[in-house]
Amino acid sequence: MTYGYQNLGSGLYQFHVGTTSHTEMIDMTEQIQKIVSDSGVLEGTCLVYIPHTTAAVTINENADENVQVDFMKEINKIVPWEDNYQHAEGNVAAHLKASMMGFSETLIIHGGSLVLGTWQGIYFLEYDGARRRTVYVKISG
Amino acid sequence: MTYGYQNLGSGLYQFHVGTTSHTEMIDMTEQIQKIVSDSGVLEGTCLVYIPHTTAAVTINENADENVQVDFMKEINKIVPWEDNYQHAEGNVAAHLKASMMGFSETLIIHGGSLVLGTWQGIYFLEYDGARRRTVYVKISG
Amino acid sequence: MTYGYQNLGSGLYQFHVGTTSHTEMIDMTEQIQKIVSDSGVLEGTCLVYIPHTTAAVTINENADENVQVDFMKEINKIVPWEDNYQHAEGNVAAHLKASMMGFSETLIIHGGSLVLGTWQGIYFLEYDGARRRTVYVKISG
Question: Cβ contact (<8 Å) for C138 and A45?
């Protein structure tokens, strides 16, 4: 699924993701590969950066969707939503899960394409949705 | 809070952080932005690298300080300090927490500034202090 | 331990790791440093990328091997192998642990060498072995 994107110049691009539930994994692989292709860069790196504190990026299996269901269920169990947190907004678990997964992922571009393993997809991780989110992609090459 | 830094040449900088307790989060955003500004690089990337095995770097909310308190309390609960570890030094939990958070963070530089979300700050994570720690910043552009 | 590697051109290299048990940590520091040296790059960055979904990369202590034993035992406890997962293949825990540790690590090259802390080694993390695995190294400078 691609959403369209903005070219901000100097190899920097942004696009938006609309999440539809509180916890959600969205496959961004096609969208990011399209930006890489359009950039014309054949050899280099592609940085995916999430400018939020309760959403993250990771790599995961793109074959069986049950992996995604189990993945999110288990991390929600490891970091419980309620645990006498002091933060008034009540979303501390989302902050911690995002930090555990990470806000950036650096990928390799070779021959104009992302170097990904057979089963690898690039996923947006929503931990405090539904919201409209931004993703930055920085191509260097 | 800025501490002063050393310019090691070729876009590489280092600065030191003095942690004052066993577990601590320290906001490095201002220090890193100052290095980016002084480097004169307008478009590129900024790699923050922690050369330790019991300290890490992450992004977190810079508004409510309770997020930081809850964040550290919860990760300490998930990875208990005592758990019949074999490592004589007794700080295995610190090693694991550092790996879960990560030793590097790559940020985007656009128009001479770090591209950060509204609520994002860059944090040094101390898991086995108090100690004098080093942070490397590598600017590419 | 070095395994030999292939130079794919444009600063991209790959090598293989043969894991011998289900859960395993393998020190890749020497192999990666050899690639950096052979590349001839004196100043830049070195991206280590794992093209799998049940293996990862991290930094860890290279002194006491008990750290590695405790490290893997504790993460296996935090993310249990059996937990009524829906994914038929039964390796969801491996997917989650790999995402928690991360699929890439960006290192600094200075004076032709990796900038690592005194106790830092670069480790391949196997969570669903034994298998033959691939590691990519991208040198930019």
Answer: yes
Model pTM score: 0.97
Residues of chain A in contact with residue B116, where contact means CB-CB under 8 angstroms, are 51
pLDDT-based confidence at residue B3 (cuts at 50, 70, 90): confident
Length of chain B: 141
Contact A107, A137 (CB under 8 A): no
Residue with tokens 């600065």: B15
Q: Are C13 and C139 in contact (CB under 8 A)?
A: yes
pLDDT at C133 over 80: yes
In this prediction, the answer to ipTM > 0.85 reads yes
pLDDT band at C2 (very low <50, low <70, confident <90, very high): low
User: Tens digit of pLDDT for each residue in B27-46?
Assistant: 999 999 999 999 999 999 99
Q: Which residues of C touch A115 (CB under 8 A)?
A: 12, 49, 51, 136
> CA A109, A114, A118, A123: dihedral to nearest 10 degrees?
130
The residue with tokens 């189990």 is A70
Inform me whether the C-beta atom of residue A119 falls under 8 Å from chain C C-beta atoms: yes
User: B 1-40 residues with CB below 8 A of A?
Assistant: none
Token code pair at residue C51: 């093209």
DSSP string, C48-112: EE---SSEEEEEEESS-HHHHHHHHHHHHHHS-S-S----TTS-HHHHHHHHHH-SEEEEEEETT
Residues of chain A with Cβ-Cβ distance to B117 below 8 Å are 50-53, 134
C-alpha A54 chain-centroid distance:
11
User: C109 CB contacts (<8 Å, ≥6 apart)?
Assistant: C36, C41, C42, C43, C44, C45, C46, C115, C139, C141
- pLDDT at A34 (0 to 100): 97
